[in-house]
Design brief:
Blueprint lengths: L24 E6 L35 E6 L2 E5 L5 E5 L5 E5 L33 E5 L5 E4 L6 H8 L17 E8 L6 E9 L14 H8 L4 E7 L4 H15 L7 E7 L6 H10 L7 E3 L8 H11 L3 H7 L15 E5 L18 E5 L3 H6 L5 H14 L2 H8 L6 E4 L2 E4 L9
Parallel strand pairs: 1-2, 7-9, 7-10, 10-11, 11-12, 14-15
Antiparallel strand pairs: 1-5, 3-4, 3-6, 8-9, 13-14, 15-16
InterPro entries: G_OBG (IPR031167), GTP-bd (IPR006073), GTP-bd_Obg/CgtA (IPR014100), GTP-bd_prot_GTP1/OBG_C_sf (IPR036346), GTP1-OBG_CS (IPR006074), GTP1_OBG_dom (IPR006169), GTP1_OBG_dom_sf (IPR036726), OBG_GTPase (IPR045086)
Organism: Deinococcus marmoris
Main location: cytoplasm
Length: 426
């Protein structure tokens, strides 16, 4: 709040400037960052305050935003509600996860022909405080899913240019490995299409409950457009597939709606008749079944071509599978007027009143937030706020609800006496 002061000018007009907004916390997906490890140990990020407005209509500067650089594929969750607030899948994509408060308006804003010297200003709002959990999810077109030692790493190496560790013992792969599969023209010189293929580490029974590294592995599957169940024909493929789908269903039932096929691996180790019989048994799942040998290369061309044909359009798939992102928009609640004849004892959000006092509680409509922004100047701003509340329909709502002259109106921590200005007109 400020008034212009100058020589030979006894009463200058209001010249209070606006306050600056507070700094926000922004997630930013960049290249060159492969993990979230560098954020470990840093538990709190805080944007700086906006500067106060000053006289002569000088506006305060905005607070500095804080950028947190994360890998592409990072998903941010509100730790308290569990809602997704950011899903960064492209380089350069940004998302505000905690917004800085808005700056207040100086008293120059509230000057009018009938209010030439407003002795009040608007306070700024508090910024958001939020607990955020970050997860990194692999971005791949095709995910190889199977139990340990089913041959996923061998299949990845055979189909792409990746070089995963391959050995005859479980959990050779301890983190997802990506490869690229190309489809070239008839001359073999130009790449016509390509997709990324991910070897998702071996799932164990109970992975959806967090056993082993189950959850660490399962969350990477959610981004794949096509799932390939890699089964070892020498074990019990039918039971393995049933158990794999049970784990996926327990983690996220929508994963079973993904396009999928079965790669029946290691067929070189059994008679052809046995491979055909197992293929027939797997028909109950309603998925295409291809018999392959990652070691000898049998069936790999057919598998590669089938994956290209089954691959859904990337943009269409993204729209159909878009995560529900919590909106940044502020949604004003509807106005609710509640009458209390006999006020209950003090409790959460309840103010104790006398037995014979009629109290009306105002909830929603943005009234509590608006009035809090003038708390320091309440007496001087009362007339202005009264006009705002009237224009927003608060008086009409109270009148329709049955409020009478002298009743108490309660908005947040502030209490007012209700006066029906319409009654004087009759």
């Amino acid at each position: 709040m400020s008034f212009h002061r100058a020589k030979y000018m006894e009463k200058g007009g209001p010249d209070g400037g606006h306050g600056g907004r507070g700094g926000s916390i922004i997630l930013r997906a960049i290249e060159g960052v492969e993990s979230l490890e560098r954020l470990l140990g840093r538990r709190k990020f805080k944007g700086s305050n906006g500067a106060y407005g000053e006289g002569r209509l000088r506006q305060g500067s905005d607070g500095e935003d804080i950028y947190i650089d994360v890998p592409v594929g990072t998903t941010a969750f509100d730790e308290d509600s569990g809602k997704v607030i950011a899903d960064l899948v492209r380089v350069g994509q940004e998302k505000v996860v905690a917004r800085g408060g808005y700056g207040g308006r100086g008293n120059s804003t509230f000057a009018s022909s009938t209010r030439q010297a407003p002795r009040f200003a608007e306070l700024g709002t508090l910024g958001q405080k939020r607990r955020v959990r970050l997860e990194l999810r692999l971005i791949a077109d095709v995910g190889l899913v199977g139990y340990p030692n089913a041959g996923k790493s061998s299949l990845l190496a055979a189909l792409s240019r990746a070089n995963p560790a391959i050995a005859e013992y479980p959990f050779t792969t301890l983190s997802p490995i990506l490869g690229v599969v190309d489809r070239r023209d008839e001359h073999g010189t130009q790449i016509e299409e390509r997709f990324t293929l991910a070897d998702i580490p071996g799932i164990i029974e109970g992975a959806s409950l967090g056993k082993g590294l189950g959850l660490e592995f399962l969350r990477h599957i959610s981004r794949t457009r096509v799932l390939v169940y890699v089964l070892d024909v020498t074990r019990n493929p039918v039971e393995e597939l049933r158990a794999l789908q049970a784990e996926l269903r327990a983690y996220d039932p929508t994963l079973l709606e993904n396009i999928a096929l079965v790669a029946l691996n290691k067929v070189e180790l059994v008679e052809e008749d046995l491979g055909v019989m197992v293929e027939d048994e797997l028909a109950e799942f309603g998925l295409p079944v291809l018999r392959v040998s990652a070691r000898e290369g049998n069936g790999l061309d057919m598998l590669r071509e089938t994956l290209f044909q089954m691959m859904p359009d990337r943009e269409l798939w993204a729209q159909q599978n878009a995560l529900e992102i919590e909106s940044d928009e502020v949604r004003e609640e509807g106005l609710t007027v509640t009458f209390r004849e006999d006020a209950p004892a003090r409790g959460v959000g309840i103010v104790t009143t006398g037995e014979n006092e009629r109290v009306w509680e105002i909830q929603g409509g943005g009234f509590e937030e608006r009035i809090s922004r003038f708390s320091r100047y309440m007496e001087d701003a009362a007339e202005y706020l009264g006009g705002v509340f009237k224009r927003q329909g608060l008086y009409n709502a109270l009148r329709r609800a049955g409020a009478r002259e002298g009743d108490t109106v309660e908005i947040g921590n502030f209490r007012f006496e209700y006066f029906d200005d319409e009654a004087d007109k009759h």
